[in-house]
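Retry 2 of 3 after timeout on previous attempt. Resubmitting structure tokens to design endpoint.
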């Protein structure tokens, strides 16, 4: 029986183990993907540290998957071997629960999460439900596509559903793994893009990514600076600091939104500020497979690309530690196959 290598976590808080397993056969409704690259995301710590209940171990993490369909199970119309595809955080949905019947597939009560509900992309092959698969543009390299399946999808999908229109002031808080993509998308969508980060040294990067204005939150009051521009229709909060999010909310324009995609534990919200100018604070879920597909297509057309550090599969532990250190610029990607 043909075999493959995967990097698994045998139980919470244990090191990665590179082991051999039989290459699985796709069952009904699933496809098998030969993985070419997989991004390492901070959310992979959920598996590594056992942060969710009832995760079955051993488990192979990875939800920023780019590869090629290698086999198709029964009952999978529209997919065929040889297609370049990606799989993101949303690991598929049932299609018949009440949220799915309303088109709210992200809220499926039986929904799965790639790399948590089932084995993800830290391996040479993986299985995925057909509903989790996104078609990838043929000319997009796998290592560039992988982070777009999570960080790219999250920022692109949030912005395109934010209600902002071309010409509106849109600020991106944070210039890290999410924010460096958020600034690019905001600029390419035609928004008057503002980058907000700590330190004057971040300004050249912000402007290179497409920001027309940069605000150094160490030296300036970001809310006051945004109000000088008339306020931000949307502030995309990608930083994981609740304190930083709290500090910018006063810069939201009337009827504007503080749109949160960074997983901060808590923040302070002023009810008075919301009431007096009809501002809102809203979270945004990443998206489903078709949203991922749209993200990939837009990124190719508009020239949006992640800034990556790549590691070969054998150095998975080193790549994971680099990502967790917060020092990577700005995404970490495992290269797995040709």
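Retry 2 succeeded. Sequence:
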């Amino acid at each position: 029986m043909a075999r493959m290598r995967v990097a698994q976590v045998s139980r919470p808080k244990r090191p990665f183990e590179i082991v051999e397993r039989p290459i699985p056969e796709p069952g009904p409704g699933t496809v098998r993907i030969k993985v070419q690259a997989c991004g390492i995301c901070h959310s992979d710590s959920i598996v590594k540290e056992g942060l969710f209940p009832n995760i079955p171990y051993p488990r192979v993490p990875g939800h920023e998957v780019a590869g090629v369909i290698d086999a198709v199970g029964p009952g999978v119309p529209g997919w065929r071997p040889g297609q370049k595809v990606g799989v993101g955080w949303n690991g598929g949905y049932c299609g018949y629960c009440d949220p799915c019947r309303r088109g709210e597939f992200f809220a499926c009560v039986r929904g799965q999460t790639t790399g948590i509900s089932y084995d993800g992309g830290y391996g040479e092959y993986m299985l995925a439900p057909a509903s989790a698969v996104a078609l990838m543009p043929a000319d997009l390299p796998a290592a560039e596509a992988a982070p777009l399946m999570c960080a790219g999808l999250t920022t692109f999908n949030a912005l395109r559903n934010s209600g902002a229109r071309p010409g509106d002031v849109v600020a991106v808080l944070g210039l890290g793994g999410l924010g460096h993509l958020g600034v690019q998308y905001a600029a390419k969508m035609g928004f008057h893009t503002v980058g907000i980060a700590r330190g004057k040294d971040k300004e050249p990067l912000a402007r290179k990514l497409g920001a027309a204005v940069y605000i150094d939150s160490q030296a300036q009051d970001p809310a006051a600076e945004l109000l000088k521009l008339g306020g931000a229709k949307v502030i995309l909060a990608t930083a994981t600091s609740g304190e930083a999010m709290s500090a910018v909310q006063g810069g939201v324009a009337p009827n504007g939104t503080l749109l949160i995609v960074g997983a901060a534990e808590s923040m302070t919200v002023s009810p008075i500020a919301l009431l007096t100018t009809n501002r809102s604070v809203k979270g945004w879920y990443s998206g489903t497979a078709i949203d991922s597909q749209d993200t990939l297509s837009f990124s190719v057309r508009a020239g949006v690309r992640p800034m990556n550090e790549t590691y070969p599969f054998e150095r998975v532990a080193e790549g994971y530690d680099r990502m967790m250190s917060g020092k990577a610029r700005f995404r970490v990607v495992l290269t797995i196959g040709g």
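Attempt log closed. The radius of gyration is 20 Å.
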